[in-house]
Amino acid sequence: MIRDQGIGSKLWRFAVWALAGLFVLNLLAVIAAVLVNSFATRWLGTWLPAGWTTRWYFDAWREFQLSNVVLVTFQIVFTVVLISGIVGVVTAYALARRDFPGKRAVILLFLLPLLIPPLTYGIPLATVLYQVGLGGSFWGVVFINVVPSLPFVILVMIPFIEQIDPRIEAAARVFGAGTGSLFLRILLPLLLPGMLAALLLVLVRTIAMFELTFLVAGPTTQTLVVSLYYAVFASGVRAGQSIDAMAVIYMVTTLFWLVLALQFVSPTQIVARAKQQQAA
């Protein structure tokens, strides 16, 4: 009986690793196919393209007006990061330092956009934004992306703030430090790693956010991922290599910021801090 359980356990582990391996292999194959096709002059029915070229990247850059799209993308992204950072750090500080009735309910309310699917609240929110005249505008896209980004900053920053001994702040005030001086000279250096981690992850999340941005983006406020969607499904005939080149540009942009974010924090650290907060 014990031997049967051992065999069953080994088979289960083998099945899990096999499925994980197949998933990774399939993902790498798709990425490789897109990457190779973006450099191919012609690729039909053979293992490798008939020739290689970089002209599809130049064609995609002109055809899809990627200069404007990339500029708008980073304008929206950095505005979302700035607003989420300022409001999120202040809110996280208040929640970490103050106890009041209903505090857990307030934290749960802030975390709801992370717990429910984006379209669940995105469609009603987009309807409201169109009714007040923000649909299709720059600030409409910023606002709808701030909704899930702000709770993310709060979730990451609360454990960082709770690690700082309140007696450090009290001692600084005893020696005459004002609120601004206390934040800039005492709190900011201690919170900087957490702030960088949170804001970089918000940046990556906003670049990759398709559902919410798609609901309110207009012709001049499309981010890179929404523009990629329209390039694929819009009417007309387009070279597949141009679309793949655009996809590679989007993939490299997102991957760059993701790798940079992971230099400051890992997902396991965030989960560990969240569990510590729940246990406390």
UniProtKB/TrEMBL annotation:
SUPFAM superfamilies attached here?
A: MetI-like
Question: Which Pfam family name is an example for this entry?
Answer: BPD_transp_1
Q: Which GO terms describe its cellular component?
A: plasma membrane
Family annotation (CDD domains): TM_PBP2
Give the superkingdom in one word: Bacteria
Record-annotated ABC transmembrane type-1 domain positions: 70-261
Which key words are in the record?
Cell inner membrane, Cell membrane, Membrane, Transmembrane, Transmembrane helix, Transport
Keyword Membrane in record: yes
Does the keyword Cell inner membrane feature in the UniProt annotation? yes
The listed locations are: Cell inner membrane; Cell membrane
The transmembrane segments are 12-36, 69-95, 107-132, 138-161, 182-208, 214-233, 245-265
InterPro entries noted in UniProt: MetI-like, MetI-like_sf
Q: What is its main location?
A: membrane
Q: Which Gene3D superfamilies match?
A: MetI-like
Q: How does it sit in the membrane?
A: Multi-pass membrane protein
Q: What is this protein called?
A: Putative spermidine/putrescine transport system permease protein
Q: Which organism is it from?
A: Shinella fusca
